Amino acid sequence: MSSRRRVVTVAPELRLHVFEWGDEAGWPVVVLHGGAHHAGHWEAVCEAMPGEIRCIVPDQRGHGRSDWAPDGDCSCRADVEDLVAVLDAIGVERCALVGHSMGGLNALRFAGEHPDRTLALVLVDVGAETAKSGMARVEKRLDASRQAAPPPTERPDEEIAFDRRLLAFVPTYCGDAAHRRALLESAAAPTLVLRGEHSRILTREGAEATAAIAGGEVAEIPDAGHPVSVDNPSAVAEALTRFLTPFTHRRG
After folding, report:
1. N or C: which end of the chain has fewer CB within 10 A?
2. Which residues pair with 193 in a beta bridge?
3. pLDDT at 252
């Protein structure tokens, strides 16, 4: 299944590239990639989704082919405003939202601020309950696992450094845990939390706590770490299809 691409101007000097898979008249599912990723990281997942689901995947500002913000604003608020502009430009009033990591927090904010436009919400390896104390426990386990690993299986230093950047970034982006809980409650949308089986970012407990707020569910993606769409795209597509199919009779 080949993708379609269009350019949407969300500000005088800010153009976003938006990729789509599936039937253009199909049920809209917006996918928001994680930080340092781009739409291409979700290509294999979108290609495996049923054709009647229209996957809409923007390169968010400063990522992929999209422009950097002239004023340097790459905040959660700015990303959500961009998403509103993209949906308005392509004529999508209501949709399901799937967001990974940074994109998951953007999706959470959109859903909390625009519940009338959100039919379902999927948070991918990020949670409303992710707080600094919880991330500190993850970092402690990361250090312990690295020290215990024999040299042949030790992860490269640059991968450890990248994990630590994520650990510093996730707790503060899109507010604190209390703010995220409030957004999730305001969204009042059917919610799925997807977690990579080997994730160092979202614990099983954190995923279950997030799902409990929304009365939602948790699905674990086997053989996957934090970048679940890259590590096991077929399992991600299967989980999304199972969760989203009951809603496809509603059009956005």
Report:
1. N
2. 123, 218
3. 45
Residue 248 has pLDDT above 80, yes or no: no
Residue 32 CB contacts under 8 Å (≥ 6 apart), including other chains: 57, 58, 60, 79, 83, 97, 98, 99, 100, 102, 103, 104, 106, 107
| 53-58: strand order across its sheet | 4-11, 14-21, 53-58, 27-32, 95-100, 118-124, 191-196, 217-221
User: pLDDT per residue over 124-137, tens digit each?
Assistant: 999 997 544 444 54
- Do the strands 14-21 and 53-58 form a parallel or antiparallel pair, or are they unpaired? antiparallel
Summarize pLDDT for 7-50 with one digit per residue, the tens. 999 988 899 999 999 999 999 999 999 999 999 999 999 999 99
Task: Judge whether 251 and 225 are in contact, CB under 8 Å.
Answer: no
Tokens of 89: 């430009």
Q: Contact at 8 Å (CB) between 193 and 168?
A: no
- In sequence order, which ranges of the chain are alpha helices (DSSP H)? 43-48, 76-90, 102-113, 132-148, 157-169, 177-187, 204-214, 228-231, 233-244
pLDDT at 247: 82
* Contact (Cβ atoms closer than 8 angstroms) between residue 130 and residue 62: no
For residue 9, the SS3 value is: strand
- SS3 of residue 71 by DSSP: coil
pLDDT for 2 equals 77
